[in-house]
Structures are given as structure tokens and as C-alpha cells.
Amino acid sequence: MNSLLRLLLKNKRHFNKGSHSVRSDSGMSMIELLIGTIMAFLIITPLLGLVIGLLNDESREGAKATTEEEIQSALDYIKQDLSQAIYIYDNDGVEAITTSTRPLIPNDASETPILVFWKREFKDNIVRVPGCTPENSDECMDGKFVLSLVAYYLRQDNDQTWCPDGISCPARITRFEMNAHDERDEFGLDDSKKVFPTNPNLRAPKTIVRGEGDTFPNREVLVNYIDYNTTYDDDDIEVNCQESLGIDNLASINITLADGTTRPATEPDLRRDTNSKSFYACVNPNGNRLAQVTIRGNALRRIQTDAEYKANNSQYFPKYSVTIRGGSDFDVNN
After folding, report:
1. Where exactly are the transmembrane stretches of this chain (predicted)?
2. pLDDT in tens, 182-223
């Protein structure tokens, strides 16, 4: 580039010496204009590239911050939800309730149930007090503990509501809840209605599932832009699950099967996940009250369609975990 400038200046001096015309002091020659244009180009081009790079970095950082905030909020919600759990299904338990003759939770090809549990919470003004008059008065309404089945899914499809461009769509986490009632409800319920099992472990005897005519409530989206590909970091998920659940000797834990027999637990019994490893739950089958939930987002998918996980962009795939213990003292075996 320096050689080019020297050549242009040499030609300019040669042109000035051989010319007898009078140059106006108020204007610029073509050579001077060309030199100025080249110099401006050499200065502006890298500056423009720098500005574009800064804008792209700002866009990616903004997407990352938003994704991190949403994942943290989703985990806070799950933590609050799960803190009321009286029974959390391990991997084998989820398989049992989704593959039964009359599945207790919805399941289709586009979604995978990851975290499933029974919870108990108190709700006001949901039952009528027997003998109270007038019956339509609010004073005749009382509260009670409601038992509900909750399931969190990892769903991936081309729904334009959540993936407008329909290309390389991210996954999202959805939530399902089915309110149930204890069959021993003192106020009496129609036996054809869905009832709370005598034991939330549906593989146990004397279990009652949902009524034959019951339909599933709609699932609600908890968070979008969850990573969905089979490339993931090299974290030792199996070891992390056991450590987070406080399990020293996995083989010492027995798993009760549908036929009532037992077998030693193995690592797959602890974790419920998909091939993407972007949303998974580790559940301690010994008591079914302790779980670790992990979510990994895809911030880049907010600003580009070809946003796949790679080692050099892992910072834009934030991953967070939380360990929760169910807080209810409700005896599930009574």
C-alpha cells in the first residue's frame, strides 16, 4: 500500500511539472481526490468492522443475559413447586405411569416428561361445609389440602408461536398439572372422577388412577430457548447426579418394580433426560423426596438460526442447576 501511495505522489509531481496551466488554489486535482478517497477507505473500513463487531457482541451479550435471567426464573418456579412435593418419580417411575394402559400424564412424540411429582398444597374456599346454610353463602365454603400431579416436559416442534421462522427451532419447557382428590374425601366424590392414588407410587398395590372419561389439561410454557442438540459439554453427569443427591453407594438402593419385586438401582434410574442433556432431573429413588434439576439454554438462537453448541461458544449456552427437597410431611402410605 505504501508503494502505491509513493507512485501516486510521483505521478502527481510529474504532472505538475509538465503542465503550463494555472491550477486554482480553491480546488483539488483528481489525483488528490483519489489519494484522499483511498486514505479514507483505509481508515473507515477497519473502524466500520470494529463497530459492527461491537454491535454483534452487544447483541449476543444481551441475548445471553436474557436467557440466564429466564432460566434462573424458571428454576426458581420449579424450586417453589417442588418444595411441596410428597413424591417425586424416578426414571423408572415416569416410564411406568406413561406406558400404562391409561397413562396418568400426557405423552407424545414432540415432548418428553422429565420431572414428575405429586404435591400437596392448601387452597381456600374450594369445598362446601356439610349442613351449613345457606349453601350458596361464602361462609359455607372451607379450605382443604389439594393433591395434584405435576409434570414438566421438554418439548420441541415447529410451532410458529414459539418458533416463527420454523428453522432449527429451540426447545421449550412446558408444565402440566392435574388436580386430584383423595378417594377418602370425607365430603364424598363420584368414584368415576379422578382421585388421588392411595399411594402416589403407582407401582404399589391399591392404586387408583384417573377416571376413564377424564381429559388432560393443557400444558403451559414455562420457558423458551432451551438448547436442543446432541452436542453438550463433557461434565460427568452421572457423578454429579450421585453427588448432588448424596448417594455414596448406588447399589445399596433397591428399586421396586411393577410386579412388586426389587432390584439394585443403577445410574439410569437416577436421571430422567433426553439426548440433548439440556433439561434433566436427578431423583433419589430412596424416599423419592430429593431431586436436582438442570436446565441449559441457547442464547444464540434468539439472534441466529444456525446456533449450535460448540466448545468456543459455550458461554452463550448458560446452564444452571438447583437441588430441592420436598417439604411435605404427608404420609403417602396411609
Report:
1. 33-55
2. 444 444 444 445 556 666 776 665 565 665 556 777 889 999
Contacts of 182 (CB under 8 A, 6+ apart): 147, 195, 196
pLDDT surpassing 80 at residue 48: no
Q: Is residue 90 part of a domain?
A: yes
What per-residue confidence (pLDDT) applies to 5?
45
Output the nine-digit C-alpha cell for 78. Answer: 420449579
CA distance linking residue 37 with residue 155, whole number of Å: 55
Joined together, the cell numbers standing for residue 99 give 406406558
**pTM (2 decimals)?**
0.76
Number of domains in the chain: 1
The phi-psi region of residue 192 (left if phi > 0; otherwise alpha if psi is between -120 and 50; otherwise beta) is: alpha
Q: Is residue 137 part of a domain?
A: yes
Q: What is the DSSP letter of 23?
A: P
User: Under the phi-then-psi rule, with left for phi > 0, alpha for psi from -120 to 50, and beta for the rest, what region is 29?
Assistant: beta
Are 132 and 85 spatial neighbours (Cβ–Cβ below 8 Å)? no
CA distance 125 to 93: 33
Strand order in the sheet with 319-325: 271-272, 279-283, 290-296, 319-325
Mean pLDDT lowest among 2-16, 60-74, 270-284, 303-317? 2-16
